[in-house]
Amino acid sequence: MKHDPEKAAAAYLSGEMRGRRRAGFEQHIVEWEDCWSEVQLGRAGRSLAESGRELGPQEVREQVRAVIAATSARRHRWRLGWGTTILSLVALGLASLGYMNLQSHNQPDVIDAVLADYRAGPSVAQSVQPNLPTRLGDLHYLTSYAGTLGELDVVAHAYRDPAGHRVVVYQADRTFPVADGAEHSGDGRTWSAAADGAVLFCADHPVPSLVVGDDEREVTLAARELGLR
Amino acid sequence: MSADPRVEFLAATLPCLDLVYNLARRTMPDRDLVDDLVQETYVRAFEAWCSRRKPRRVEPWLATICLNAGRSYWRRASTRREVTTEEVDLGATSQGEVEDRAVAQVRAELVHQALWQLSDEQRIAITLMDLNGFSASQVARMTRSPRGTVLSRVHRGRKRLAQILSKEVERLEA
User: Fold this and answer.
1) In chain B, whose CA is at the least distance from the CA of A73?
2) Is residue B63 located within the same domain as residue B39?
3) Among A125, A152, B45, B99, who pairs with A147 as Cys (CB 3.0-4.6 Å)?
4) pLDDT in tens, A65-106
5) What is residue A138's three-state secondary structure?
6) In chain B, which residues have their Cβ closer than 8 Å to the Cβ of A45?
7) Which of A7, A49, A53 sits opposite B151 (nearest CB)?
């Protein structure tokens, strides 16, 4: 039988040799010791190789989810950047003609910066190790990053629920300014507000924190899970 | 309203994570680099996905992206790769002192170390065919090599693996 023993043994062991060719090769290896041992050695090697198969670790799976979320956010931020530029030009034009008053809101700089950061998605600022739980109710942890928002140094922790609602917990070493239109709790220690389509909840204990999300239920849930008061 | 591309992408590709991970493990010698390569593969794949270059079959598409990303890394890296593997105490397994799961881990690590003693071409061919189940023709397309060359690489790699782990083979046959 004319053949290349290596290729024939590899094709045979990989199940790529079929029909009469396979039957012929099987007949051949029974008769030829060299080819028989070639197949046996290849079979042993294949069995060993298969036993080295591993499962992808769960943390790698979560990293992939997070990195895809971040990739998407970068794209979203780019589009938002152009949109913001166009809107700014339109607003400037209208203002120069005296048709409108540009004082559309009076949010403190920090709150404005937080809302802009929330809209932009996970920042490209310095990535940090998370110090909060990976689950808050049905919210799953995505990523953490540090940066400065309106002259306030913050660490942000991003979460997402199965429905796609995002919640970001901003932590700082000093109190966040109160948002325009905020409503204070009965004891005056926390406040909540709605601004720019987002819901905000702020508390000073156990650490000054501002929870921002697009779903009030998830914001409340996150604040409760974190024991903010 | 169109579906979120991230959800669609992850639903289609995350079931293939084991495949990508096994390929990355045989492409990168260091655990951190393995994680980086898996992420890089998924980012590249997602960008292609968003550019309306969705594949007909996800598995070979992801494997090809992973191989290309690995090649790019090694082109950038100036240093020769060095294998870093965990310490493995084979003696402990023969004494029956560890549980089945630990034995499997030890065995997998031994095979992993032995695979790194093969040539890059042999290791990748074995990983694609024996660990991930691709056909020789698919591997030939992914690695841009003739099918016959792939079969030769796989067979020589299998034989070498069997020789390196001859004691393990004896235990298999016992």
Assistant:
1) B6
2) yes
3) A125
4) 888 887 754 454 444 445 555 555 555 555 545 444 434 457
5) coil
6) 157-162
7) A7
On whether both B58 and B133 belong to a single domain, the answer is no
Q: Is A108 exposed, middle or buried (0-12, 13-18, 19+ CB in 10 A)?
A: middle
Token pair, residue B4, equals: 């979120």
Same domain, B125 and B161: yes
Tokens of B28: 């990168």
At which of B87, B118, B134 does a domain end?
B87
For residue A56, the chain B residue with the least C-alpha distance is B18
Q: Do B119 and B146 reside in the same domain of the chain? A: yes
Give chain B's domain count. Answer: 2
- Residue A160 is encoded by which pair of tokens? 């997402």
Whether chain B has a CB inside 8 Å of the CB on A41: the answer is: yes
B72 and B123 housed in the same domain: no
* Residue A45 to residue B43, Cβ atoms within 8 A: no
Measured distance CA(B93)–CA(B37) in Å, rounded: 32
What is the band of A19 on the pLDDT scale with cuts at 50, 70, 90? Answer: confident
Predicted ipTM > 0.90: no
Per residue in B53-73, pLDDT tens?
778 889 999 999 999 998 888
Domain limits for position B14: 1-87
CATH code, B44: 1.10.1740.10
Asked if the C-beta of A6 comes within 8 angstroms of chain B's C-beta atoms, the answer is yes
Domain boundary among B87, B110, B126: B87
**Alpha-carbon distance A121 to A134, whole Å?**
18
Of A10, A51, A64, the CB nearest to B154: A10
Chain B residues whose CB is inside 8 A of the A34 CB are none
Which pair of tokens denotes residue B8?
């669609």
| Contact (CB, 8 A) for A185 and A139 | no
> What's the gap in Å between the CA of A126 and the closest CA on chain B?
18
